[in-house]
Structure formats: C-alpha cells, structure tokens
Amino acid sequence: MTFQEGGSFGGGRVRKGGNGGKIAGGGGAIGLVVLAIYLFTGVDLSGSTGAVQEPAGQTGETVPECSAEQANTDRECLYSATLDSLDTYWGAAIPAAGGQFSKPDAVSFTDAVATGCGNASSSTGPFYCPPDATIYVDVSFFDQLAQLGAEDGPLAEQYVIAHEYGHHVQNITGVMDQADRQGAGAESDSVRVELQADCYAGMWAGAAASTVDPDTGVTYLEPITQQQLQNALGAAAAVGDDNIQEQSGGGVNPDSWTHGSSEQRERWFTTGYEQGSLQACDTFATDQL
C-alpha cells in the first residue's frame, strides 16, 4: 500500500541506533546467541553473560517528520509512517477489546545494536524485544526478501513491521508471558505466537486504507491493490520455516519449526486481513494451525 497524498507523519517516532558495526558489552557471537535464545525461547540469559543492555537509541538521532511522498520512497520514513498507522489502529482496537494500550518504542539501526534482549547484528533480521518493548529494524533487510523468493514492495515491507508490532500486542495483552516459547515444532507455542503476529499484521492491513490519521484527517493508506496483497503474502511465505530450510540447502524438518510454514504464514495473515478480529486470530484456540 502507498501512503495517501496529503499525509504527514511527525518525526521522533523512530530512534536511530547502532554502533558502527561493533557489538557492545558481552560482544560478538555471545551477544547474538543470547539474543537468539531470548527471541526463540523467552529465556533471558543476558545477565549471566555480561551482555550490556544499553539504551537502544545510541546515536541520539530520530527519523524526522516525513510527508506521504517521502514515506513512499524512503524506507526509514516508511518505517516511521507505518508505525504511526499501527499506533492509531491498535490504539483503538485493544481498548475496544477491553485491554490497555501502550505504544512500542522503535529503532532503526545499521550493522549492530544493543538491546534489552542482548546484542544484535543486521543478520538477525527485524525483531521485537519484550523486555524493552521495542521494535528493531535494519531497513536493508527488505533487500533480502527477494533472495528468499519474495517480490519487494511497500505492503511487503509494511507486513514485516506490522508483524513485529503484533508481537508488541502479544506482550501487552499477556500472550508472551502465557506461551511456552521454549519449544519447537509445527504445533508448538513458538509457532502459534508467530502465526498470531502474522494474523495481527493482516488485521492492520485490512483496516489501514480506512483508518484515518487524527492529525491530518485523511486515511493513512490508499486501497490495497491485488499486486500489493500478493507481495505481502509472498513476504509471509518467504519467511516460512520450510522455505528458509529449503533455501539453506537442508531438508524440511517440521520438528524444528519456530515460526510456521509458508502456507501457514500466508493463511493466518489472510485470516486477519479478511476477518479483522482478535478472536479470529486466536491461534492458541485451534488444533488446525
């Protein structure tokens, strides 16, 4: 989806992090292992390894105010503007369901960054860290979607951001605490957490073209085209466990899955897109993942 002409998005929503490619504190491989353990199991080992949990916005800079035209051409502006739309959508949807809403922090980094979950490099890909309630994105990741077989495009990139925002929704609604994220396998809680975040991303996408920016009075995004929808579904499929295993040259092993298959990720995004409700996205209440 492209941002609606006349839109304008305030600066300061996304902080710029990163430290020139040097992993801080516990350093290098240890920091990355700590982060991977936390993201995939929910076990925080940072205190036992000496990994430093520095403030995310190390540079002190933020993404400046962007026009709709800039958001349609500049990836950091797209990141910031997409968050603005997500804030508005979930800021209404969660209270309507009886919950309390709070915005996640957001960081755009290059090369490497220190986080509340440990240290990360760009090779980690976009992720959400529950302890510091922050979304971390190196926007150069979007170039890698094509390497995984996806067509790049605005909605494909927005899907990635919306998925990570979905993890924040899970964090503030208690799903992260309730799920057993230490397991793996096609029916595991780890997979259910990821598929639910895909479904939440679909919920946002289905409503984004009718969600009005309270600051400008115009809808955030133009209506989705069929091609843009296919791009988003392609991005979901590209990051399926089976596709990544195939791309790495190994065999497909469902017992090791932590995110779900390409088919599952497409299907749950579509469920959220078409049904648009938290109830429809309850991946923990179904045996048919």
TrEMBL record:
The chain crosses the membrane at residues 23-41. Keywords: Membrane, Transmembrane, Transmembrane helix. Its main location: membrane. It is found in: Membrane. SUPFAM superfamilies: Metalloproteases ('zincins'), catalytic domain. The keyword Transmembrane helix applies. It is a single-pass membrane protein. Residues 243-263 are annotated as: Disordered. It comes from the Bacteria. One of its GO terms (cellular component) is membrane. This is Membrane protein. It comes from Cellulomonas xylanilytica. The lineage of its organism: Bacteria, Bacillati, Actinomycetota, Actinomycetes, Micrococcales.
